[in-house]
Amino acid sequence: SLSVSLSLCVSNIIHLGLCCFALLRLQLEKALSDKRRDDELNEMEDGGKADAAGQKSNKPSVLDIDPWENGGLMFLRRPSTDKSPAKQGATYEDGKLNAKQHLHLKDRDRRPSLERADSLAADKGNYVPVAYSQSSAARAQSHHSSHNKKRSEKKSIRSKGFWKGLVSSPGDSKHYLDEKDPNYDPDEDVQHYNYREYSGPKGGSNGSEDGKTFDKGSEEEMKHFKSRVELDLQEFLLCGDMVDFRWSVEELATPELNHLLVKKAVLLGLGRSQREREMISQLFSFLYPKVLTAEQFFTGFENVLYSLDDILLDHPQAVHFVSLFMARAVIDDILPPSFSQKVRAKMADGCGGGDGVDAELVQGALNCVDTHINHRHATERLLRCWGSGAGRDIDATKLSMHGLLNEYNTSQDVEEASHCLSSLKVPFFHHECVKQAVVMMLEEESIQTKMMGLLKKLSETGLISDHQMSTGFHRVKQRLPDLELDIPKASVKFDKVMQEASACGVLAGIPAGDGHSQAPEGPPSGAEDKLDASFLAFREAATNLLVEYFNSGDAAEAIVSLRQLDQSQYCGWFVKRALTLAMDRRPKDKEMVCILLCDMYNDVLAMKDVEKGFTLLLDNMDDLILDVPDVVTQCALFLARTIVDDLAQPRFIEKAIRDSETNSASLECLTYCAQLLAARHAAERLHRCWGVGARATADEHKEKMKKILEEYLLSEDVAEASKCLRDLSATYFHHEFVKLGLIMVLEKKGEAEKQLMKLLGELSSTGQLSENQIQMGFQRVTNNLDDLCLDYPDAREKVMECVEVAKAQGWLVQSSQ
């Protein structure tokens, strides 16, 4: 027993030492990875400095940055790339390519520099000028620029996941004049190509745009600062460009007056809607600490408190809103948690605000701040203190519209419904409200009169335009096959609603050439005028097939149904239809489509069908944006996921980028997709792009793979094992299957060893286990040989034998050793 105890102690000590060694190794690898990443960021910041002036620039790459750098939710917004300025002597094609990149994928923190201006002046004949920003009348007076700025900025998590153009993320300024806009004026486009040299901050005085200078600390300088900041804040609330606002503040070069910016922003937000207040809170988080320090924010909010008695004359709810602004700043780590105590202490010492301050009013506001901060779940509440995200987030906006329609159905208060709809400030998305109202009328005929009265009133007042009204009805018309499953005789009811809408003047009729993405979709050839009866029958059957699959989740039944249709020439259209239907559904349904395409691949779908489906989707993307505002992001995620699943080749992106038009949404989508694929750990992240709850966890996959191997040893049925592995829909994780098979070889003896190697060889010959996944599996086992030898003394010899067998049979290449 003594020898057994000693052996157990020695074994435990060895295991403990190995665990400590593994932890130290992980920490070292993390430190090396962080250092390598810091070096890469430094190289990006100093990029271009080492290039010779006359060196030719290669084709700009779209794989410059890591779109996942700030967390797992970074995919919700589209990052921009980092390009070098145009070189002298550029050809016309180079200039056109640079114009395409800059119109859609602008630099994070760069404005046109003096070198770029010289390049334009030297090559006017063959270079396409780039419009770097679209602005209001205020920006037409001043074009801000930046000189030698660092590109690595602190980004707030509150700036993610918002609609483009409402609250832009840092560096995501993509506003440009669209030549297809019916209101496009060519003369107006000229004013955006003025380049000037950035002179930098002045040492002893601050200058205005008309050449006037002010002495430091003078009253004129303060007035100029306030007027400029007010104009810049108003412009920011219109375009949401945080980076441009930062440049404006830095150009003023008056850090001693920055506390006035805080007060001016808060006062401006008091008279605005919840959406603008949320934008201001995000702006504060973005400016801290690079532009405004904690002391400047402290002074700015302190001045707001001391002016509360005057502010209340114009804004009766000022105490409530100001306390929310300050509590939100505390949650965002801008103000210290002891802000209230410090202000009270200063007032007690007689150092705060002077004699004219209403101490009781200030004390009440500070009490409100303390209440907000100390409340249960304070962080989650204050992050949504300005609303649920309606007007900024698509899903929240849909819920808000559904809520206001339900409230109107109860109260029949048209004014309140109009106020709620206008407060969302999304006139481009009003067709969603029309769509939901029409669907409610189809579901319950008793409310048809009330809802039609609301739509008539909103149409007469101009709150919902004729185009948005037609778009809403059109979307319902295209979804009638799906609605028929839930609403009996939906088509008949919709015809009655259309007739009543036309009679009331709400709808003059849906234009025939409306051009929406789902109206009517043609075969893969794109010849919509040659639709034949076979394609129309296939379209209806395929749509019903997909809807049934969303409800049941039975991929095998969907495969059988598609095979029975026997229309392989339309499989590309089927892929496009599956993607477009999923875009307007839950993340779970999007994940189901990815799994369905994996299951259908090499059975009823070929790689050319998948690529053809994405080609059709990219061609119609500019129209699809009307129905799905975030179609660019969703399509990029679908395409990246498809490439990770080996359903399409990466070269498809390269070819599609060459074929894309300038200023098109498809170019932006393809560029973002390339960035997603170039990011670190792209495969694992993309397989969780629709949420961690949409798929099985890694431990669940490991357990299922182990059961597949154990069942195979009992039945020796390769076909059944292949089917079970394919049903997991985890092609990126097949290296774990190879690893588990090799470990089971070490555990089993005799005939089981040959059976497992036969299974791996068969799966490799059919292409189910890719060459890369097999190499990774063997490499993982080889790297863990030291640990495996503790449990299996002959592990090294066994693994080497397996490697030789795999090499001899041709399913393991030489480089895997």
Strand content: under 5%
Radius of gyration, rounded? 31 Å
Proportion of residues in helical segments: 55-70%
DSSP summary, beta strand count: 2
Q: What's the number of helices?
A: 39
The main sheet comes to: 2 strands, antiparallel
Mean pLDDT: 75
Within the largest sheet, what's the order of strands? 1-2
Structural category: mainly alpha
**End-to-end span in angstroms?**
43 Å
User: What shape does the CA trace take?
Assistant: globular
Spans of at least 5 consecutive residues whose pLDDT stays below 50 are 48-94, 99-176, 190-205, 509-531
Explain what you see.
- This protein is mainly α and 817 residues long.
- It is 61% helix and 1% strand.
- It has 39 helices and two strands.
- A two-stranded antiparallel ribbon has the order 1-2.
- Helix 23 packs across helix 25 and helix 35 packs across helix 37.
- The longest helix has 44 residues.
- It is globular, with a radius of gyration of 31 Å.
- About 20% of the residues have low confidence.
